[in-house]
Write a structure and sequence with these properties.
Length: about 130
């Protein structure tokens, strides 16, 4: 029987990482705790800006911690040639995060991210 972590990993790998524009994705909280599958593309594309991105994301998780109870739903930021999309899990300090090219089709990615977020929330809330 699959545990919750494995089910969430399956959503990340099968629903999001299969999309060409998603270089990396995960369900994370401050300090990069969580589920974050890596891939060859992640290593190749993201590593040059990883340290800067990590510190920036830690700061954003502070905002998420403070405002998710108030209904904060999404955060986007651009860093160099990349955009980082945060889809916050309801009333939590955790977010579904994707790193995509800055010029990616945001509309399509938002639909895929929202569908994945809903599946992940269902998995987390299941008994």
């Amino acid at each position: 029987m699959e545990g919750k972590k494995e089910k969430v990993m399956k959503v990340l790998e099968e629903d999001l990482q299969r999309l060409g524009d998603i270089h990396a994705c995960g369900v994370l909280k401050k300090g990069f705790e969580g589920i974050f599958p890596t891939s060859e593309e992640f290593t190749k594309e993201i590593m040059p800006i990883w340290d800067t991105m990590k510190y920036t994301m830690d700061d954003l998780f502070e905002i998420i911690e403070h405002y998710s109870e108030e209904g904060l739903d999404k955060i986007y930021f651009e860093l160099g040639n990349y955009e980082v999309m945060f889809f916050i899990l309801p009333c939590s300090d955790t977010a579904l995060v994707a790193i995509v090219p800055a010029l990616a089709n945001r509309g399509l990615l938002e639909v895929e991210m929202e569908n994945a977020r809903r599946r992940i929330v269902e998995i987390i809330e299941s008994e």
